[in-house]
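Tutorial, part two.
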Amino acid sequence: MNILMLLYKDIHYDARVKREALALAEAGHVIYLACVKEYNEPAPFLHENIKLVHIQITVKNMKAQISQHKGKSQRKSGFKSMLVWAARRPVIKIVKDYLAYYEFYKKVKQSVQKMDIDVIHCHDLNTLWQGTMLAKDFSAKLIYDSHEIFNEMAGRNQLDRFVGYRMEKKLFRRIDYFVTVNAYLRDYLFERNGEKPCILIQNIPIVHQNQLVPSKVPESWTFPFQADDRILIYQGGFSPYRGLELIIRSMKQLPDHYKLVLIGSGILKDQLIELAHTLDLTDKVFFHDQVPSEELIYYTQQAHIGLVMYEKISKNNYYSTPNKMFEYIQAGIPCVSSNHPGKAVVVDQYKTGVLAEETTEGIVNGIKEVVNHYSLYKQNCLEAQKVLTWEDESKKLVELYKNI
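Running the prediction step on this input gives:
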C-alpha cells in the first residue's frame, strides 16, 4: 500500500511521526512522508520504504527571515518590528496560514502526482485541509492523526480557534479513520465533531534493550555536576504555559545540590535564561540545545527526576499526555507532573512519580516526595517499561492499515 503522510513541520525532531512511518514501512508499506523543510541539516534516513518529500514554504521562510534578521540601523530594526507585528495580527495571520497551507498542498501534489496513493495520513489539524483535497485528488482513504487538541494549543488566538474549530468539524465528516493519543482527547473531539472509527496510540518511544542501561554519556553533557547532585530535567519545547518559569523559580527553594537541565528550543528560551540570571541561579539552572529523538534517552538517563508541569490554561494542556511522560519512564527516572487527567492516567496507574500542584511550593514538595521514596518510584518505572512498549502500540496502527 502507498501511504502519503503529511506533517506541517520538519521531521527531524518529531518522534511520533518517525515511529509511525517506520512501523508501517517495516510492515511492507511504502511511505511518502511530506514535511516542511525547516533545517539545513541532511534529511534523516529512516527506512528504505520511507521516501522523504521536503517542502519549502515561502511564507514560513519569510517569517523566519524577518524574525532572525538583525537590522543594522534603528530604522531597519523598526521596520522588522512592524513586519512582525503585522504578521501576528489575527486576520493577517489567518490569511498567511491558509496561503501557506495551500502552497504546501500544491507542492505536495506536484511531488507525488505520478504515484498511486492509497491512503492520506494527516498528522494534526494543520494538514487536514490539504489532506482532504489530496484524498479527493487521488481517490484515497483519509486518516486524521490528532496528536493533541490543536485548537487549544498555546499561541492560538480567538480567531484561530473560531476558524479552526469550524474547519475541523467540517473536515471531520470526510475522514475515514481517526487516531489520537488517549481517551480524553478522543472523547472531547468526538463530542465536538461526531464519532469515527478510532484507535488510540500512546506516545511511547522506541527503546532498544541496550539503551536501557545508562552507559553512554553524551559528549555535549558537560555540566559541572558533582557526584551527590540531584539532577532534574525538562525536555521539550520552551513554550508558554508549560510551567517552565515555575520550575526555574522552584529551584530557589531547593538546596544547592539540586540542579536543573532544560533541553529543547522555543520562543521562551531567552526569557528563561534571563530569569535564571535574575534569580541568581546560573549555578543551578542549565540549558541544552534540542537533540534528535533517537539520542534523547542518553541525556534523560543522566538525570534523577523528570518534570512535566504543564499549566491548566487550556483543554489541550489538561487532557494531553506529553511524550516526555513515557520518555522519562523508558529512561528509568520518576517524574513530578501536573495533576491533569492526561498525565495522571499514567502516573496513577504505574506509580512512576508524584502529581503536584502548579505552584513553586507544589513542585518543591513533589520533588522532595520523589526523593524520599526514590528507590520505589524508580523500580516502578522499570516495571512500567516492560508493559509500555512501542512494539505493542505500533501493532494497533499496522492492524488498522490491514483493515483499510
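The first strand starts at residue 2 and ends at 7. In part three we will examine how such features are distributed along the chain.
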